[in-house]
Design goal:
Order of helices and strands: HHHHHH
Structural class: mainly alpha
Distance between the termini: 95 Å
Radius of gyration: 31 Å
Number of helices: 6
Helix content: 55-70%
CATH architecture of the largest domain: Orthogonal Bundle
Shape: elongated
Mean pLDDT: 75
Low-confidence stretches: 4-8, 10-17
Strand content: under 5%
CATH superfamily of the largest domain: Cytochrome c-like domain
Length: about 150
């Protein structure tokens, strides 16, 4: 047992010596750590900002209904009814012509999708249509447009 107590004291002295020798290096690392953390945070914020700017400039492209499985159409219909039906009628059936989204293809021809996406993105405040940019995800808008493609007359 005396062997253990003697080695314990030796370990304690060696530990103290090692800590004393390494102390200046650790203090320097601690001083650098907040700076490194700040620089890392700034880099992350700049990267996320750049990604957001690029993503905001990407045009929304609807999913092609012909390539969409039936569950995407059903989900688009459900999302439409959740977000749009209070103005555009359940399942897009609306008696008022300006709000009847089943007539988009008739009104705007081949450019109806572009008109839909720009209206959803920018809104039409003068007509009571809010901008959904930042509220609805691109995926949600794409699924709603699949549903609207399906109901065009």
């Amino acid at each position: 047992m005396s062997h253990h107590s003697g080695s314990g004291a030796g370990r304690q002295e060696r530990w103290s010596c090692r800590c004393a020798v390494q102390q200046p290096h650790r203090e320097e690392a601690v001083r650098r750590s907040p700076l490194a953390a700040r620089l890392g945070l700034i880099a992350a914020v700049l990267l996320l900002t750049a990604v957001a700017v690029v993503r905001a400039r990407e045009p929304l492209t609807p999913i092609n209904p012909a390539d969409s499985p039936p569950e995407v159409l059903a989900e688009g219909q459900s999302l439409f009814n959740q977000y749009c039906s209070h103005c555009h009628g359940p399942n897009a059936v609306q008696g008022e012509r300006p709000r009847d989204l089943r007539r988009l293809k008739r009104r705007y021809g081949d450019h109806w999708r572009d008109k839909l996406l720009s209206t959803v993105d920018q809104g039409r405040p003068d007509r009571g249509m809010p901008s959904w940019k930042g509220t609805l995800s691109d995926e949600t808008i794409a699924k709603i447009s699949v549903f609207l493609e399906h109901v065009q007359q």
